[in-house]
Write a structure and sequence with these properties.
Length: 428
């Protein structure tokens, strides 16, 4: 019996995220294993993963000790809930550990099960709950930036600054405002126009990630932090990508001296060896819920503080500390920037954005994209055929966010393969 497109569509039940299944079904790349910064495909090929999967396999692939931590915990107690007054050793230990690493005093930690989107929705609800608890229920508006990506739950989708992601869905949640990504005056103006008594919080990625990898303009983060303080608006630092070392410090908020009211985090907390996220609050936000008569935060997920996920995250943080991987990121930051910089001279490249940890975006020339809308997707495919995995972010840039264990030679190879593919595409 022959197998045609109809057979393929019947055989494949997996509906991939962010995919046009009409084209993807039957043309997927199956990854079967990996070690370090390399993954292996079922086709027998190996690929250098310039993405760390989706910005998260920070300690690299094939770390047996994280599997051992999972097995040991699962043999003892796989999971028990943390609603109300229940807790577990790993949940307590991980909360303490994250609190101690966080760049704010006396941080409290609310775990989320699925990753960053749950953390963002939790933080958005918490911001509104905070103002409600402190007698200013009118402060409900949440402001975010163009190019921002805050995940795909309802708040995150609405807060995102990538219109294609929310166009068919709006309005998902009310009282959300978007401003320019790079202009502190835009935040000041938005808060003044709305009235500070209406505004609950400002959501800010220290380095915009999925929107195209945009490091903060010089002075931007300090300026918006000051504006939030002046208008009494909560500052929420979305560190789902940047948390746990990716910018060369444990948190980008520490690197930039931001003292945020809330941090959202996920990915690097476990390096993806189990799904888990954490919302980290400073003392101001926890106060009305933790002291005096207290106030319930009526929110939580079945798998908040999942016991095995917490045990794996603890082992992951142990590993990062033992191998000094955060310092390694700081050391590799200038190496990555210098190695990718020459790509900017290629005719198909407008700019290379880098210089904040192990994060970079290679912007494909706008003119070439306009003349050939399929160019970005073809480049991604050609780079993969040449043995390196990247993807298009913001629809315009090639993403580079490798595992922290990447070597200088491997960084060189990413640059070389990008250059070969970009040069070949310019010739065709
Ligand atoms: C800054 C930021 N926030 C939130 C999210 C959503 O995280 P998740 O996909 O784990 O739900 C992401 C995912 O890439 C992100 O980059």
């Amino acid at each position: 019996m022959g197998s045609g497109p109809a057979d393929t569509l019947r055989e494949t039940a997996l509906w991939n995220p962010f995919a046009n299944m009409a084209g993807v079904a039957g043309h997927t790349v199956m990854i079967t294993g990996g070690e370090g910064s390399t993954v292996h495909g079922s086709d027998g090929r190996s690929y250098l993963d310039a993405l760390a999967s989706l910005w998260y396999v920070n300690v690299g692939y094939g770390r047996a000790e994280l599997a051992d931590a999972a097995v040991a915990q699962m043999r003892q107690l796989t999971a028990f809930q943390t609603f109300g007054d229940f807790t577990s050793g790993p949940a307590e230990a991980l909360a303490r550990r994250v609190s101690d690493l966080a760049p704010m005093p006396d941080a409290k930690v609310f775990f989320t099960p699925g990753g960053g989107s749950d953390a963002v929705d939790t933080a958005a609800k918490l911001a509104r709950a905070y103002w409600h608890a402190t007698g200013q229920p009118g402060k409900r508006v949440i402001i975010s930036r163009a190019h921002a990506y805050h995940g795909m739950n309802a708040y995150g989708t609405a807060l995102g600054g990538i219109p294609a992601n929310w166009d068919p869905q709006v309005p998902l949640v009310d009282a959300v405002e978007h401003i320019a990504w790079d202009d502190p005056a835009a935040l000041d103006k938005a808060i003044s126009t709305l009235g500070a008594e209406q505004v609950a919080a400002f959501f800010c990625e220290p380095v915009i990630g999925a929107g195209g990898v945009y490091p903060p303009p010089e002075g931007y983060l300090a300026a918006v932090r000051e504006i939030c303080r002046r208008h009494d608006v909560l500052y929420i630092s979305d560190e789902v990508i940047t948390g746990y070392g990716r910018t060369g410090e444990w948190f980008a908020s520490g690197r930039f001296g931001l003292d945020p009211d809330i941090i959202t985090s996920a990915k690097g907390l476990s390096s993806g060896y189990a799904p888990i996220g954490a919302v980290i609050t400073g003392p101001r936000v926890s106060e009305p819920f933790w002291r005096g008569q207290g106030e319930w935060f009526r929110h939580g997920y079945t798998y908040s503080g999942h016991t095995t996920s917490c045990a794996i995250a603890l082992a992951n943080l142990d590993l990062i500390e033992r191998e000094d991987l955060v310092a390694r990121v700081a050391d590799l930051e200038p190496v990555l920037a210098a190695t990718l910089a020459p790509l900017a001279d290629l005719p198909l490249v407008d700019e290379v954005r880098s210089g904040t940890g192990l994060l970079a975006g290679v912007e494909i020339a706008a003119e070439a994209r306009a003349a050939d809308p399929g160019l970005g997707a073809r480049l991604v495919r050609d780079i993969r055929d040449r043995g390196v995995i990247t993807r298009l972010v913001g629809g315009t840039a090639l993403q580079v966010s490798p595992p922290f264990v990447i070597t200088e030679q491997e960084i060189g190879r990413i640059a070389e393969v990008f250059a070969d593919a970009l040069t070949a595409a310019a010739r065709s």
